[in-house]
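Folded chain entry
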Amino acid sequence: MHLAYPAVLAALLFCTGLYGVLARRNAILVLMSVELMLNAVNLNLVAFDAWLSRAAEDTLHSGQALALFTVAVAAAEIGIGLAIVLAVYRNRGTSDIDRLRDTAEGHDPDDPDSDATGRALPAPAAGEKAEATA
């Protein structure tokens, strides 16, 4: 088999994963897209290892060993990532990435003393009237 076939498949997998990371708002789908990108890298590692082992005299299979290490790291990453997403979902009721900045301590989205970015508005100086917020 030519080296181009797995390389093109890995490029398609990586581009699909990159699109998923950039376009998705759900944290679980973003984690799945990262896994697609890691699997594309693993496919390249194994394909290039097989291609180089034919040309080299000694077969260390370092690409396959590195792919196994990457799989172990990806399993740990998905476990920790899902634990974080579940904790956020239990606290906030959503796993929307755009709403994660609202999880900062002390931020109440219904607080009239904060602006649209969540920062507290300055207190009026002594002798000034506080403006009514509408």
Notes: The chain has three helices and no strands. Residues 49 and 55 are 10 Å apart (CA to CA).
